[in-house]
Amino acid sequence: MVADDDLSTPPTTREWDAASYDRVSDPQVRWAGPVLDRLRSDGVGIVLDAGCGTGRVTESLLGRFPHAHVVAVDGSRHMLDEAARRLAPALHAGRVTLAHADLGRPLPLERPVDAVVSTATFHWVADHDALFANLAEILRPGGQLVAQCGGAGNIAAVRRALQELGEMWQPWHFATADETRGRLERCGFDDVAAWSTDEPTSFRSAAALEEFLTTVVLGSHLDRRPPSEREPFVRAVAERLPERTVDYVRLNLVATRTAA
Prior knowledge:
By secondary structure, this protein is α/β, with parallel strands linked by helices. The chain has one domain (about 5-155, about 170-200, about 250-255): Rossmann fold, CATH 3.40.50.150. It has helices at about 20-25, 25-35, 55-65, 75-85, 90, 130-140, 155-165, 175-185, 205-215, 220-225, 225-240, and strands at about 45-50, 70-75, 95-100, 115-120, 140-150, 190-200, 245-255. Strand 1, helix 3 and strand 2 (about 70-75) form a beta-alpha-beta unit. Helix 2 (about 25-35) packs parallel to helix 3 and helix 9 packs across helix 11. The two termini are about 25 Å apart.
């Protein structure tokens, strides 16, 4: 399979607070269930988990496909360290390989994979043409892509709050279903389905919302601020969100690598 040293250090990814993410990422894990349901079991020997985070979804993937090997990649070494702890038995058994990789760059795997699975990741990649071309390159003809990410309209209330606070920079790429369908077809996929679903997510307390925003949504913005400004900034965003709710919109993707 692929070794960590075989992949170039990603220049465009960022480090995450992996312990906090593992604690607050229940919404992402919940959304992943229907994504994994769309992955057919036939012919799945090697699966790429593109943006594995702390390995919570990877763990589910290994459970659902007990005979598959999973190559789990992420752009954050902190996430991979947390995933290594969670997936230690699977690593020891040789069922999973962890690798540090930037999905916006070619992925130098030693052999093609049978399927690509991704949840809550693609919207962090700026160039979706490059992203899908890279995935097509390492996916065997007839292989499956099943994924979900933030789509057009995602976290609109958060983005409005940022603008009200004078923050115009936004690190996400929230594409429409039509845009994404066309990109996938141009990059060598067919049988493409792309659609959006609303997934508003509420939090039981202001503290829970602020921790989630700090860890999952606003980390890139906080990296640009001095430590003394970070907590007040998160609180100001949280106070602008109606009913402590983040208005998530998920873009769902199912496609097949065009047969040779």
